Amino acid sequence: MNSNLIQKLIIPSETKIVMLIIDGLGGLSREPGGKTELETAHTPNLDALAERSCMGLTIPVAPGITPGSGPGHLAIFGYDPLQYEIGRGALEALGVDFELGPDDLAARGNFCTVDTDGRITDRRAGRIGTEVNQDLAKLLSTIRIEQSEVFIEPIKEHRFAFVMRSQGLHDALSETDPQRTGVLPLPVHALDPDSEKAACNVNQFISAAKALLTHKHPANMILLRGFAKLPILPGFQERYGLKAAAIALNGMYRGVARLVGMQVLNVTGTTLNDEFATLQKYWRDFDFFYLHVKKTDTFGELGDFDGKVGAIEEVDALIPRLLDLQPDVVIVGGDHSSPSVLKSHSWHPVPVLLYSRYVRADGFTEFGENTCAHGSLGTIPATHIMPIALANAQRIAKYGA
Amino acid sequence: MNSNLIQKLIIPSETKIVMLIIDGLGGLSREPGGKTELETAHTPNLDALAERSCMGLTIPVAPGITPGSGPGHLAIFGYDPLQYEIGRGALEALGVDFELGPDDLAARGNFCTVDTDGRITDRRAGRIGTEVNQDLAKLLSTIRIEQSEVFIEPIKEHRFAFVMRSQGLHDALSETDPQRTGVLPLPVHALDPDSEKAACNVNQFISAAKALLTHKHPANMILLRGFAKLPILPGFQERYGLKAAAIALNGMYRGVARLVGMQVLNVTGTTLNDEFATLQKYWRDFDFFYLHVKKTDTFGELGDFDGKVGAIEEVDALIPRLLDLQPDVVIVGGDHSSPSVLKSHSWHPVPVLLYSRYVRADGFTEFGENTCAHGSLGTIPATHIMPIALANAQRIAKYGA
Questions:
Q1: Do B387 and A64 make contact, defined as CB atoms within 8 angstroms?
Q2: In which residue ranges of chain A is pLDDT below 50?
Q3: Could you tell me if A212 and A152 are in contact, meaning their C-beta atoms sit under 8 angstroms apart?
Q4: Residue A146 Cα distances to A152, A190, A205, angstroms
Q5: Closest CA to A136 of A72, A210, A197, A199
Q6: Measured over all CA atoms, what is the biggest interatomic distance in chain B, rounded to whole angstroms?
Q7: Within B141-184, where are the H helices?
Q8: How far apart are CA A39 and CA A17, in angstroms?
Q9: DSSP of B252-311, one letter per residue?
Q10: Is B52 in the A-facing interface, judged by CB distances under 8 Å?
Q11: In a mutagenesis test of the B interface, which of A25, A301, A348 is the best target, namely the one with the most B β-carbons within 10 Å?
Q12: Contact indicator for A163, A143 with CB cutoff of 8 Å
């Protein structure tokens, strides 16, 4: 396999790689023949970098497939997202910045309402306030299940992340949410023999939770679904020989970075500026930096074309700070497209540029979907980017004699 | 696997997709530096559509491989033609519009001449007239083999399609045609244990045929080869959630469409115009339409450059009728190339355009091999077209969160 090939050929180097991921970067024009968000944005710094770079479009998962953020990031990090699946429960825990470990079984949790017979009357407990949720989560966190630790991380309204930590837990479990009212919550069943212990522990937890919540109407019961452990995958150090750091403000991206063995850096502040300051601060300490920009995706999902344009321009203004550090390789790309006309993630291939002093620069004077479509990288699986970056960083030895 | 991934992510929608397959579309110029048939043709409608589409070239089977019509069509329908093989006998039956089913074992048949010792003297029975063939086929159709139905479908001169219908027939069978004269026809041997029943039944049929034909010199014996059942594959409904219809005039294309679960529509008449009228007539009843144009390939195989140009122009003139229906996604492509300078199918990648309101249009103002070679779809496996079309029709859910 290709990834094993890379691992075998990795050689040490002092070079530094920066991967700037502009979330949901790819877009669409508002009307036929028009410009995309990226093409509309005034990006003199990215355009100047593009002229010295090779360009292309990345396909995160497969042609026609719209990726979630998890698969999109795994792909650009060089991990086949169809091989390494991040389950929904695990993503939920990562999203609240929970440091999910290899012994952790995660699930998406809801508070719900049941009647005196235990039948569900409201699957969302009337969307209780987040403060109520926080109190109840604290209460549930007091439950002790033999040889297991349980963490209840409140999210918004009725939602929480459930994590049970214990050795030997497997995640082939049925869900407790029957997805309708008027019936009892379902017990958890093990879907394979290895998951028996987990099923037993989770059912114990649910019983204890039910008892604790009896008088907490409308949030007098819980539902759990999407049980998942993190996939086990070789980290950046092992696979690429890179001491890697992640700079991201949101939990999920920090979580995925942690999953691939990056050190997640503390960012002082909450702005893009703060993220770039963090890059400068830790510049000497790592070989590889993943820097995540969230706003572009947020505006894309809101359908705010101009907002996304502005967010891209904000990134562009900070590019000189990045280049001042004189990285050997710079990748500017995205985890997926989020065209504002679709108000969602999309299947469209994602613009990418790769700069190093050793690329064959395409010489296009603009970083945009159209120039990238004609770039010399071609339209390629996103998993190809890391090997090309490593090569440009002179970190891959010759194959064969 | 990729195709399973699509199947899992399919969501319902009201959108409509039209796939216009111009058989043998790809071509070559007559002299170096010249224009291909498609580039020579005056195609204002396709050119205008191209400007709003993304374009590319499709590779039906693999680089350098010249596809037959069966594999070429399976590929553009999204089925790996190396995984799903349509044997020659099955293709022969499909070619005469025989409704081949899952219990049918098909073969290519010849009437031949044998001497009094049973040795073959003419493998083609002096190319008997088609009317004689029709009479003899009727005669052979009277043969009854226990628990099997037999169908003999006359083709041209000495050729016929043989179909035996019975449960439990397998197609790992040796051929009876020794490919030379002066020897006896070979008995059928089972090449695996599962095919014993089929071998036994077919040998019984051949004995009965021999007896019936004794006095029918020169067509006093038969030869059978290319035994094949249809591959079993998931249909369009199952795999793509599409209620699909096929509009094609020739048996083989109707047969391949039936194989992938399309409903083959009756076309009143025999012209391209009639095919487009059929599209209009059934527009409300289906989600997906495959419309097949035959003449381009016919002219290509005849080496008639101008004829192929004219056939393409004939298609172009009908494009407005297609667009008037306001399909959400339009694919215009081919099953393979048939350059008239080669007078045959060829290995050349096939031009394709894909229109929807959500494509990033390449903006090329001509539909031709050269523009397609620079299109943003790239030069891609033909099997990628269906996922991309489904994505544009908003029929694929997000993968992962």
A1: yes
A2: 1
A3: no
A4: 17, 18, 10
A5: A210
A6: 75
A7: none
A8: 25
A9: HHHHHHHHTTPEEPPPSSSSHHHHHHHHHHTGGG-SEEEEEE-HHHHHHHHT-HHHHHHH
A10: yes
A11: A348
A12: no
- Judge contact between B390 and A57, C-beta under 8 A: no
pLDDT given at position B2: 67
Percent of chain A with pLDDT over 90: 94
- Given a contact cutoff of 8 angstroms between Cβ atoms, the answer to whether B160 and B133 are in contact is yes
Beta strand extents in B318-377 (DSSP E only): 329-333, 350-355
CA of residue A370 relative to chain centroid, distance? 26
Name residues 7-36 of chain B within 8 A of A (Cβ).
9
Nearest to B398 among A68, A339, A373 (CB): A68
Listed in sequence order, the DSSP H helices in B129-195 are 130-140
Query: Around Cβ A295, how many Cβ atoms within 10 Å?
Result: 20
Give the Cα separation of A400 and B268 in Å (integer): 63
Strands (E), B315-383: 329-333, 350-355, 378-381
Compute the radius of gyration of chain A from its Cα atoms. Answer: 23
**Closest CB from A57, A82, A374 relative to B374:** A374
Q: Which two tokens stand for residue A222?
A: 């819980």
Q: Find the residue in A nearest to B1 (Cα).
A: A82
Backbone region of residue A278 per phi and psi (left: phi > 0; alpha: psi in -120 to 50; beta: other values): alpha
Other Cβ atoms less than 10 A from the Cβ of B313: the count is: 16
Q: What ipTM does this complex have?
A: 0.90
CA distance B355 to chain A (A): 11
User: Which strands form B350-355's sheet, in the order they lie side by side?
Assistant: B263-264, B244-247, B288-293, B17-22, B329-333, B350-355, B54-59, B378-381
Interface probe with B: pick from A38, A65, A371, most Cβ of B within 10 Å: A65
Query: What sign does the CA torsion over B115, B117, B120, B125 have?
Result: positive
Q: A250 — contact with chain B (CB < 8 Å)?
A: no
B285 contacts B265 by C-beta, under 8 angstroms? no
B96-105 pLDDT, tens digit per residue, is 889 899 999 9
Name the minimum distance, in Å, from the CA of B121 to any CA of chain A: 55
Give the residue-averaged pLDDT of B189-206.
96
Predicted confidence band at B48 (pLDDT cuts at 50, 70, 90)? very high
* Residue range B226-234: mean pLDDT, rounded: 94
Instruction: Give the containing element (helix H, strand E) for A331.
Output: strand A329-333
